[in-house]
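If you are new to this repository, start here. Below is one unmodified record pulled from the training split, so you can see the exact layout before writing a loader.
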Amino acid sequence: MAEDTRRPLLLNGTGSTERQADGSASSKERGAGDSGSVKDASFGTQKTQSFSDDSSLKTGSVTKTSCERPTQWRGLAICGLIMYLTTSMGQTLAVSGWPYLRTTNPPFQIDPTVPVSFLGYVQALTKCGHAIGSCVFAVHAYTTKTFRNALIIGRLISVVGCSFYILIELFAPERRRWAYMLKFLLQSIAEGSLIVVRSYVPRMSREKDRQQAFSIIEGSNMLAIVSGPLVQLVCHVLPEVGTPLLGGWLKFNMYTVPIWISLALNIVTLLISMFCFKEPDLDELEDEKQLPLGQAMRKAWQQAKKLDKCLVAMCFLEKSCASYGFAAMYTTMSPYVTESFNVPPSQALFILSIAQSAAGITSLLTVLLFVLTPLARVAKARYTFPFALSCYTIMYLFSYPWPGISEDIPLRNNGEEKCR
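And here is the target side for that same chain:
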């Protein structure tokens, strides 16, 4: 019997057929409209499908059609509001904390014997607390695939910290400084929850709107730097001692009213996070199938090693200088103003509020220039970063006590004048 040389039928993209000589995969030459194929391994045959030229499928492979979601501006606006309220709390208390702790007007005394070095320990501890909080909340958000829980937990921790500050006069005089430290430690841990915002913004915005979306968050942060000291400046019109309530341990004065405002803002932010904050729809995201945490960290490390080393070093140096500058300012400015100008804590608070408000306005104007003008396209990062670092260098060079242009600071204790 003659060998049957008939070929099995294969369906091509146009509805016609072609025959296959053996079990190996073969296909008819594709026409102009053909662009992909799918192989059926179980039968050793190949089915060729035709796709239109305007399809998103690539030649020789099948990929999912990309359909980018529209930017969720309402969700981003609520996120910016949460960022503003959270940051403004810390900025308000950062100015008034040290003058409040060193108040010496009887019977309103907190802990006038606390040394200046204690403020440095508080700043160092809060930085550590912020780093720990950021890591914990970032891991929590990644593993649970939710953002709302981190923001809610952060606000609850902040409410506990505000309670320590409000009840500070219930502690023994020698222990009030530790209640003060605990309050700012809890506040720094709570602010670590804002790390999830960096991941939230890309999930809620299209790539072409990404820069504008992040500008909302950064603008909220800069606005908080301005409004926080302004709140303290308004509270300066209140009396220093204030009216005692509940047996005398609770007072409303220029130092305590900001903490009550901070507590109210915490509660408002908590309610916004619970009922108004919108979680991103993870089902519509391309990266829904996330890797386990260990594998994700290894993958991120491999990707990080491919980045430009000089650019990474520049970003790290700029961020380090900025963080160190803020920490140094908050640590030294309050004692410096109090001692060098020989002013009471209430007047020192007024000077610090004006200085920080001016710094915040300058920062806000800089951000607006990059957002509302073509400056972001004209001024490249390779020039703006060195310029910012040069400003820091010049500031420290001018503030260093060089011989011939500096003098000793007179310190006055109990009417005795000393020099340091």
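Two things worth knowing about this chain: Residues 1-66, 414-420 have pLDDT under 50 and may be disordered. Residues 35 and 59 are 5 Å apart (CA to CA).
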